[in-house]
């Protein structure tokens, strides 16, 4: 098995500090770390739409660093604190990023995340070009 880390410059701390790859290409697929809406400076918007958008921006950063776009996604799992409170917002933001053919998607309610105040984490799998 040959695996290659995909590490955009804006997510290098994931690799250096947390010892995890933002994306890991393996056997024709790219497996992504789950991303919350925490920004590079450590801040976290109190606005659910901005948090969700910031999380999708991280996914986009890895996709672009790997020469891909949202059309390469095959599976998405989203984890939510207060799933029913912001599901419509999540779907609206997701629709501004995700394109056809739409990936399979599972949404899961969770009790919390490492970063206090985070309401969503997005994890995806993409098919490498």
UniProtKB/TrEMBL annotation:
GO molecular function per UniProt: deaminase activity
CDD domains assigned: YjgH_like
SUPFAM superfamilies: YjgF-like
A GO CC term attached to the entry: cytosol
PANTHER family: 2-IMINOBUTANOATE/2-IMINOPROPANOATE DEAMINASE RIDA (PTHR11803), RUTC FAMILY PROTEIN YJGH (PTHR11803:SF44)
Protein name: RidA family protein
